[in-house]
Amino acid sequence: MNLKEKDFFLHKNQYAISNNKEGEVFKRSSSNIALIKYWGKKTNTLQIPLNSSISFSLEKVFTGTKLRYHVKTPPYKKNFSVKFFFFGKKKFIFWKKILVFFYRISSYCSYLRDYHFTIETYNNFPHSSGIASSASFMSSLALCIMEMEKQLVPSLTHSFFLKKASFLARLGSGSACRSVYPGLVVWGNHKSIIGSNNLYAIPYPYKIHSIFQNLIDTILIIDETPKKILSTQGHQLMNTHPYAKERFKCANKNMDCMISILEMGDFQEFGKLIEHEALTLHAMIMTSNPYFLWMKPNTVQIIHMVWDLRIQSKKNVYFTLDAGANIHLLYPMNERLFIGKWIKHDLMFYCKKIIESICF
Fold it and tell me: Lesser CB count within 10 Å: N end or C end of the chain?
């Protein structure tokens, strides 16, 4: 059953603070890599996508977040009380983002103003470099908040817990709503996917061929520095992009193709589609006004090397890119040995770091 926005409101008469005066929770949430990309948000709305998307969650690329809380002593101010630490250090920019996030979700979690919070977080990959660090952090924080809410309202079902966590995470970072779940996850209303909607993500509901189970995703870290143009700014540029409407049509058509591919198990068509989606995303970025370029010379060099390897070896290795310079190589588990050796022998020179994960 699809939930509406009204279903996520929690008012003060629905819980008692005395049930949960203090506590500590920890949640770990994976990054995700989109196969069909979401790029562009509806104007005058909060984090509503202009096309549906589908992603794999990445088992070994994650953010861990600890949330400690205790009730404020009256009389107290109604503003939010939050301390934030990233790898044990205060980060003012991140702290400001969390305050914005708390403000956005406060209507749905009215208890947030009643507590002091200390948030400690870390991740095992570079942040703000195009590997969905905000997605994994915001989803881990949303899961912590929902764990706290479950103490206040013990009757919450597991299904509702995850849907609301996804709903809240979306208000921090659009793609964060997909990181709440493992495996293949869909976000955004699509006519061909039952249960899909714009408010929260859902696990992919249809048959998946065995070749797509436990795919390897090797992330080639080409540039660890934070992006000069953040994804939020890039999304905004789609509002005036001359090719935006055609892009949204193309993305929805590609989603229909992906549904068929995932069922039939055609890895070559899968690979061609994810590469097309990645290059289309970057084409939109390069033709925005103002335009910009996230790819680096080594990004382009590795793309050509992937294409050459496929011709020479007939191996099933394909790339995708998020909004950054770093490359994800996707390939079946049974080709891990050959491709792993090739990556270490031929690609290491072009990378700052290599992270191997599993699409789980």
Answer: N
Asked whether the predicted pLDDT for residue 278 surpasses 90, the reply is: yes
Residue 350, token pair as written in the block: 């072009």
Whether residue 55 is predicted with pLDDT greater than 60 in this model: the reply is yes
DSSP states of 162-190: HHHHHHHHHHH-TTHHHHTSSSEEEES--
Are 101 and 127 in contact by the 8 Å Cβ rule? The answer is no
- Residue reference for tokens 């630490």: 85
216-359 folds as Alpha-Beta Plaits (3.30.70)
Query: What is the token pair recorded at 20?
Result: 């949960």
Structural domain spans, the chain? 5-203, 216-359
Q: Give the span between the Cα atoms of 43 and 76, in whole angstroms.
A: 36
* Cis upstream peptide for 75 (omega within 30°): yes
In one letter, which amino acid is 193? I
The 8 Å CB, 24+ separation contacts for 315-319 are: 315/339, 316/267, 316/268, 316/271, 317/271, 318/270, 318/271, 318/272, 318/274, 318/275, 319/274, 319/275, 319/278
Q: For domain 5-203, give the fold.
A: Ribosomal Protein S5; domain 2 (3.30.230)
Place of tokens 């229909």: 256
pLDDT band per the 50, 70, 90 thresholds, residue 226: confident
Angle between helices 92-105 and 158-172 (to 10 degrees): 130
Of the CA atoms within 13 Å of residue 276, those in its CB half-sphere come to 15
What sign results for the dihedral spanned by CA atoms 234, 299, 349, 220? Answer: positive
Q: How many CB atoms lie within 10 A of CB 347?
A: 21
Residue 62 forms beta bridges with which residues? 30
Burial (CB count within 10 angstroms: exposed 0-12, middle 13-18, buried 19+), residue 51: buried
* Distance of alpha carbon 209 from alpha carbon 95, whole angstroms: 42
